[in-house]
Design a protein that fits this description.
heterodimer, A: alpha+beta, Immunoglobulin-like, disordered C terminus, B: 404 residues, mainly alpha, 2% strand, disordered N terminus, binds copper (II) ion
């Protein structure tokens, strides 16, 4: 009967491992947009690799310690007549379990530096993307406001007369690194693209350059990952990754509708030239 | 036990609240209104789709994969679900703009029951079109807490979501406005509590022959004779006003194209802005900062007899809330930043606010000039947003460049 406890603790560990093992098949794992739930960005895949590396290390440790725990519980279970032995610890064991994890930590710290640098260090950014930010994204309770430069122009820190605006609807070109400037109008927010593994806090008073690259067309979620007030849960937007031509076309359409002067083509005969925009929302 | 009872009380089935104005009526006068609303609109959990109104409630579709669409009225119900999830906490169950979050917000969420909406494409005094409301939902109202709901219509099967919400909002608005119209009908029949009390007091003093019984008998007779017609007439008027805005004639459309916003146009616009006819500067201030002289006046409360004044100086909206004219140098346009949006704001005014309609005062060219000027204010009057010809679309190829 007492052995039941060792089985119980073993079972808890087995269930935990089994649940993790089954998770990808049950769609409990990474968000599924691409085959296998892979990140849809090259850097995202490297981040996943780091994640899996750490997962392997912790899993091996977890399984090892749990197996050991179950074994010790089973083997050294209390029995009539058996007396406990007292110990003041083992110096060499303590050295081992300090040095080995420290070594592992150091290894992870050094090993991830390259990915970190690619993501965060500006001199490692793609030079073209760095010089040509595609937009400024301003987080605001509780929405994402996006400002693009006019097609063919470069984003300026100050709003320009021909800038284009959208809200919660962020389009990006596919297949090249793109950079945008992240700002906040009010409090801390966090720009989170789960499918691209991009997460960056938006800090009031700071303009933070963020880059990523999408390798897949389609619509992806944009959410806020920093509790920012009562409406945090609904601070959602959508990223649309499109081919370069489609993206340029999108900006052109946006420009047309933003500068729409509402004159029906039929009435416009003889008037000077101006862009005809569509009227419907 | 007490705990359970407490929990139960917090979620009673939702009800449409009566307007405060309805509560000013005597019980006898209130009754027919409550009954009319019950019979023609129901309650949130028992919606009634009154065919009198030109709203698309959803026709029964027995072949639909989704079983809930087999019954007529499914659009109204789906609209309600979405409204309850996304809008209720600000705009309230009955659309009275008094949800639990509302008291923390400035400006306050719209009270739909007045049937007045600010950012429309329609002529002065008219309701918003379906597409106007949808646009508001897509873009939100920048500079206020009204968020954008554009993601609700993204993704397969969601394309119609905003249309469903808009129809529910229009239905709520019709319900609330009909209630108000009926209140004024019954007030005209002498159904206000205060009026009845006053007449009874006069009767007691011998100034008239009224007694409580005679007043009530008159009131009951007026209701029996006139209420049914008043209900049908008010509802028809309302239905017409919602149908009418979908006609092309109701839409404000400039006849001439926008003038190119060169320095000349901006200068002419500035002259109009400061002129006696347009008086923009009286509200928006000579520099467009939203601090004109009229923001320091004490204004009359509309429809008060004898005339009363607001306690605070400055402009007020139709809901009695104090408000400032827009600071035009901020570049934030609540009703949208397209030139046509600003044209419409100037042509038809901003409904429910003191920003007047200038369609009869200014001609198209003048409106475009003043719009060009207003849009140039965030850029110190030097230039006004206009899509310049792109110099040469930048090639999306990598170029060697130095870092900062
Ligand atoms: Cu946020």
């Amino acid at each position: 009967m007492r052995k039941a406890w060792s089985l119980f603790f073993l079972a808890a560990a087995v269930v935990a491992v089994a649940a993790c093992w089954a998770a990808p098949g049950m769609h409990w794992w990474f968000p599924q947009k691409s085959p296998g739930g892979h990140a849809v960005s090259p850097l995202g895949n490297q981040i996943d690799d780091l994640f899996y590396l750490i997962l392997v290390i912790t899993s091996v440790t977890f399984i090892g310690t749990q197996a050991m725990l179950a074994f010790v519980l089973w083997k050294y279970e209390a029995a009539p007549g058996r007396r406990s032995a007292f110990t003041h610890g083992s110096h060499s064991l303590e050295v081992i379990w300090s040095v080995v994890p420290a070594g592992i930590m150091l290894f992870i710290a050094l090993y991830q530096m390259d990915v970190w640098a690619r993501y965060r260090i500006q001199s490692r950014f793609d030079p073209y993307a760095f010089e040509h930010p595609i937009a400024e994204v301003t987080a605001r309770q509780f929405e994402w406001r996006i400002r693009y430069p006019a097609p063919g122009k470069t984003l300026q820190a100050k709003p320009q007369p021909d800038d284009l605006y959208t809200v919660n609807d962020f389009h990006i070109p596919l297949g090249r690194p793109v950079m945008f400037q992240l700002r906040s109008d009010d409090v801390l927010h966090s720009f989170f693209l789960p499918h691209h593994r991009v997460k960056q806090d938006a800090v009031p008073g700071m303009t933070i350059p963020v880059w990523f690259e999408s390798t897949q067309t389609g619509e992806f979620e944009l959410v806020c990952a920093e509790l920012c007030g009562w409406g945090h849960y609904k601070m959602r937007g959508q990223i649309t990754a499109q081919r370069e031509e489609e993206f340029q076309e999108y900006l052109k359409k946006l420009s047309q509708s933003q500068f729409d002067d509402g004159v029906l083509a039929a009435n416009a005969a003889g008037a000077q030239q101006a862009p005809a925009g569509e009227e419907k929302p | 036990m007490g705990l359970f009872a407490g929990c139960g009380d917090q979620h009673p089935s939702p009800r449409f609240a009566l307007n405060k104005k309805t509560l000013e009526l005597d019980k006898i006068a209130r009754e027919p209104i409550v009954k009319a609303l019950q019979e023609n609109f129901g309650e949130p959990n028992r919606l009634i789709a009154w065919q009198k109104f030109p709203f698309d409630y959803g026709v029964a579709d027995p072949k639909a994969a989704d079983a809930s669409r087999h019954e007529a009225g499914w659009r109204l119900k789906e609209g309600r679900e979405l409204y309850m999830r996304h809008c209720l906490h600000c705009h309230g169950v009955s659309g009275d703009g008094d949800g639990p979050t509302a008291r923390f917000l400035n400006p306050r969420p719209r009270d739909y029951r007045a049937g007045v909406f600010k950012f429309t494409s329609t002529l002065s005094g008219l309701k918003p079109s379906h597409d106007d409301l949808k646009r508001t939902l897509q873009n939100g109202i920048p500079g206020t807490t009204m968020p954008s709901f554009i993601v609700l219509e993204k993704g397969p099967g969601n394309e119609e979501n905003l249309d469903l919400i808009v129809d529910y909002v229009r239905w709520l608005s019709a319900r609330g406005e009909l209630e108000l119209k009926l209140v004024s009908e019954l007030a005209a029949m002498g159904g206000r509590k205060s009026e009845i009390e006053q007449r009874v007091a006069e009767g007691k003093k011998g100034e008239s022959s009224d007694t409580l019984e005679s007043i009530m008998a008159d009131l009951k007779k007026s209701i029996a004779d006139g209420f049914a017609d008043a209900l049908q007439e008010s509802a028809s008027d309302l239905a017409d006003s919602w149908a009418r805005v979908e006609q092309p004639e109701s839409v404000v459309r400039p006849k001439v194209k926008r003038t190119r916003p060169d320095q000349e146009s901006i200068k002419r616009g500035r002259a109009i802005f400061l002129s006696k006819e347009a008086k923009c500067a009286d509200c928006h201030g000579p520099a467009g900062l939203g601090n004109g002289s009229l923001t320091e006046d004490f204004w009359d409360i509309p429809n008060t007899n004898p005339v009363q004044k607001y306690k605070r100086p400055g402009l007020h909206d139709a809901w009695g809330e104090p408000q400032m004219p827009r600071n035009l140098t901020s570049g934030v346009y609540r009703g949208g930043r397209r030139p046509v949006d600003l044209y419409r704001r100037v042509f038809a005014g901003i409904k429910g606010t003191q920003m007047p309609a200038f369609g009869t005062v200014l001609n198209d060219a003048q409106i475009w000039d003043v719009v060009n000027y207003a849009m140039s204010l965030p850029f110190h009057g030097e230039q006004s947003p206009y899509p310049e010809e792109a110099p040469e679309a930048a090639p999306a190829k990598k170029v060697a460049s130095s870092q900062h």
